[in-house]
Design a protein that fits this description.
Blueprint lengths: L14 E3 L12 E6 L4 E4 L2 E6 L6 E2 L7 E7 L2 E6 L4 E3 L8 E9 L8 E5 L5 E5 L2 E5 L3 E3 L10 E9 L3 E5 L5 E4 L11 E3 L11 E9 L5 H15 L3 E3 L7 E5 L8 E2 L9 E2 L8 E2 L6 E2 L10 E4 L2 H4 L6 E9 L7 E9 L3 E8 L4 E7 L6 E5 L10 E9 L8 E9 L7 E8 L10 E4 L13 E8 L14 E5 L5 E4 L6
Antiparallel strand pairs: 1-19, 2-18, 3-4, 4-5, 6-7, 7-18, 8-17, 9-14, 9-18, 10-11, 10-17, 11-12, 12-13, 14-15, 14-36, 15-16, 20-35, 21-22, 23-24, 25-34, 26-31, 26-35, 27-28, 27-34, 28-29, 29-30, 31-32, 32-33, 36-37
Length: about 500
């Protein structure tokens, strides 16, 4: 089974719910692991020491003790820091590493006085004027401003590879600086501060992971996935069918040749060479289907007249989570129906430029017509939510509106990539054709290639999307400086 990368609302995407993961983080190259649910020695709620689960490093307080807060984040304990860190002399931070920290600051001052991990003077992981940042002989700030807020937990990822890259909540780390970072490994390594120099961290820390190499994208995503599932409203609830759902494929099957239809309309799809193998999909949705390398892997069924009538072709939305389209010279089909040249809709990725495209049979001429975006970027091993909406608009001929969305996993809002006005009306569907998922027409060169999850056809133009991997959880500051979880709506 291939592990797939992680990964959005009412409308287009599925809803986040809190879960706890029994899974462990990636262990290869793991040299330091602090987990607030394990390894703490306490007197009452005061932390006497925090022992790493990898490497056996013991962090102890040089001054005031932090406190453990049971059940604070997704029902699990966190360590709350105030004026003093925990330190160890047995571990170093340095170049050619990857660091993950799950934390929530209780303030974001307009200075560098929220230092939460590392060495003093060079090698400080900190916040700087409200941004995830660090000092490595120079300042390196995150390239975007999303995902950092007072009292809000986030996953910060630092990747050192003769440069400094910083990512937040599963976004691909971007350059804080292309300069080669410096680390003062002669000073103690600290959590909840940097050991010396003041500016210690105020807030909560749930977990710290340090790897001895700059993790590649797939491994990095696996670690972020583990953290999201463990600590946050980070998993996704599969779509719940509503009055507008014509067809819905969760693609959770781990074996067999038939993908069930979750809409209640009984439109299950089968393949002669099954792509239903339990590959991991977008977090929490369950399994994904794929790969789809050829016509035999395409899932399909012939539709009768009553089944064809399920699909409204005046107003509809087709959507899916997708990963790694083949980007062939032909179509990488996602979801389609075709009955010869009498009726069709075909949604997928077109050509080596990676355009989103919707092909239809025109109502006025009966000819084939293809509507498409410009070329789009598809990063390897990344999930994207894609959608097309079709609105026949008024009773006038050929004034339909077609809108395409391509949203990378981690974005807060659906990204409209093209809206086409004055498009032809769609020929009503006729019975006897084939409904397909994962390709068009049973043709090898028109197969999707990669992985698909949560494919849905809705008899409505869905709008107002709010897609996102967690901003993970919102917290309120309570008496005694403790942070308690307030669940916020989570949708994708």
């Amino acid at each position: 089974m291939k592990m797939r990368t992680v990964a959005a609302a009412l409308g287009l995407a599925a809803l986040f719910v809190a879960t706890m993961a029994a899974a462990q983080p990636l262990t290869s190259g793991l040299e330091l692991w602090l987990d607030a649910t394990q390894g703490l020695a306490t007197t009452g709620n005061s932390v006497d020491s925090w022992t790493g689960l990898a490497g056996g490093h013991v962090f102890t307080p040089p001054g005031a003790k932090p406190t453990v807060v049971p059940g604070a984040l997704n029902g699990q304990a966190v360590v709350s820091f105030g004026s003093s860190p925990l330190k160890t002399a047995t571990a170093d931070l340095g170049d050619q590493k990857t660091v993950f920290v799950v934390l929530a600051p209780d303030s974001l001052p307009l200075n560098q006085n929220q230092r939460f991990f590392g060495h003093y003077g060079n090698g400080q992981l900190r916040y700087n004027t409200g941004l995830a940042s660090g000092w490595f002989g120079f300042n390196a700030d995150q390239a975007d401003t999303a995902g950092v807020a007072v009292g809000q937990f986030a996953i910060l990822t630092y990747r050192f590879d003769d440069d400094v890259q910083i990512g937040i909540n599963g976004r691909t780390p971007s350059y804080g600086s292309a300069s080669n970072p410096s680390f003062t490994t002669t000073s103690s390594l600290a959590v909840g501060g940097v050991g010396d120099g003041g500016g210690n961290f105020g807030g909560d820390i749930a977990e710290v992971l340090v790897y001895d190499n700059p993790l590649p994208a797939g491994d990095r995503s696996d670690v972020e996935w583990y953290l999201m599932r463990k600590w946050f409203d980070a998993t996704v609830r599969p779509y719940t069918p509503d009055a507008h759902t014509a067809a819905l494929y969760h693609l959770d099957e781990t074996s067999g040749t038939t993908a069930a239809d979750g809409s209640g309309n009984g439109l299950g799809l089968t393949a002669s060479s099954s792509p239903l193998n339990g590959a991991d999909g977008v977090v929490g949705i369950g399994a994904a289907a794929g790969p789809f390398p050829d016509g035999a892997s395409q899932l399909g069924r012939s539709l009768s007249a009553p089944e064809v009538a399920v699909f409204d072709t005046d107003h509809f939305t087709i959507e899916a989570w997708v990963q790694d389209p083949a980007l062939t010279a032909d179509h990488d089909g996602v979801f389609a129906y075709r009955n010869g040249n009498s009726s069709r809709f075909q949604f997928g990725v077109l050509g080596t430029a990676g355009r989103l495209a919707l092909g239809i049979q025109r109502d006025d001429t009966g000819g084939y017509y293809n509507m498409q975006t410009g070329g789009l970027t598809w990063a390897d091993d990344e999930w994207y939510h894609i959608a097309v909406t079709y609105d026949s608009n008024t009773a006038a001929a050929n004034d339909s509106i077609v809108t395409f969305y391509q949203t990378p996993y981690g974005e807060t809002d659906a990204i409209l990539v093209a809206q086409l006005l004055g498009q032809p009306d769609l020929e009503p569907l006729t019975a006897g054709g084939t409904l397909r998922l994962g390709g068009f027409d049973g043709i090898d060169g028109r197969s999707f290639g990669g992985w698909l999850d949560e494919v849905r056809y809705s008899n409505v133009v869905r709008r107002g999307f709010n897609l996102y991997i967690p901003e993970p959880a919102t917290l309120a500051l309570l008496g005694g400086g403790l942070l308690a979880l307030l669940r916020r709506r989570r949708s994708r």
